[in-house]
Amino acid sequence: MKIFIPVTVSPRRGRIKLLFYVPPTYPTRDPDRTYPAVINFHGGGFTIGSAADDARFAHTVTTENGAVFVSVDYRLAPEYPFPTAVEDGVDAILYLVEHAGELGIDSNNMVVNGFSAGGNLAFSVLLRLNDWLSERPAILDAEENHKEGKNVTRKWSPSKIRAIMAWYPSLDFTLPRYSRKATNPRQDKELPNILTNLFDASYVQNYDRDRQSPYLSPAAAPLDLLRGLPDTIVLFPCQWDGLAAEAEKFRERLEHDRGKKVTYRVIPEARHGFDRAPNPFYSTSKRARYYLQACGELRSIFASP
Fold first, then answer.
1. What are the angstrom distances between the C-alpha of 248 and each of 65, 266, 272?
2. CA distance linking residue 90 with residue 117, whole number of Å
3. Phi–psi pair at 181, nearest 5 degrees
4. Which of 75, 180, 270, 289 has the CB geometry, 3.0–4.6 Å to 238, for a possible disulfide?
């Protein structure tokens, strides 16, 4: 199932595709039933990739958690540089909340997830969403179907997002790429420079101006902005990844400076993007194991009061 929604936040007008993966019971659901939801942002250096890239994880979530999984096909650089992807993510969440009743989604039980660049968006989109709503006098109204079949509205805010889950995220563009890569204990496992340089130049077209933006470098965001993030954060960095060090520093800021509950699971002997290796002989057991661990975390999050 897919829906195309209009762009309202970005000045670069257009449409965004939302790709839905649903549990087996969803097509025949009772009209009053709502499902928890995972809102997902794919990886690809903000430059390549699509909403379908995380289909394996989506199917695991719908099977193990009985949740609706919505993958956002945000627009890509260089045609749509920073901050377009962030603004598209804001539009996606606004749409899902506004239409939660008709989509069968519980707008009070949503988790934002992302892989790599999408892990960046899992944080930066919520930071931008908080600012976007604070700039407007009215709080977003979310529709909710009642048993009588009537629609009523109730107040919703980004604080209703239950958690952020991020896999090997890119979090701090204030640091030059070479210094980030230098932290990797296995340099032979790094992505090639020609690729990462292309990603960075395509997405961040004015590096000196934008690198300090919290919507690009959430790990370096001011503490008062981090207050608006969910209290529960789940991070899955990879041991053999130049982005792991900034994830560890961000974890410390979130825990010690903002009092967030951070579950931090380093994936041992794994390189960036370990779960989507193109080698057909690559063992899938590690991917399956960590996907199931993530679903265990989601189970606890969705069930918490």
1. 28, 9, 15
2. 15
3. -65, -30
4. 270
Provide the b/e sequence for 268-297 (b: ≥16 CB within 10 Å).
Answer: eebbbbbbeeeeeeeeeebbeebbeebbeb
pTM given for the model:
0.93
How far is residue 77's CA from residue 236's CA, in Å, rounded to a whole number?
25
Residue of higher predicted confidence among 234 and 278: 234
Quote the tokens at residue 144: 């909710």
Residue 178, C-beta contacts closer than 8 angstroms, at least 6 positions apart? none
Residue 129, φ and ψ in degrees, nearest 5: -60, -45
Q: Can you say how many angstroms the Cα of residue 141 is from the centroid of all Cα atoms in its chain?
A: 23
Q: What is the pLDDT of residues 150-187, one digit of tens each?
A: 333 346 778 899 999 999 999 999 999 999 999 999 99
| Rg, the chain, Cα only | 19
Q: What is the 3-state secondary structure (H, E, C) of 80-110?
A: CCCCHHHHHHHHHHHHHHHCHHHHCEEEEEE
Dihedral in degrees, nearest 10, Cα atoms 40, 46, 49, 52: 10
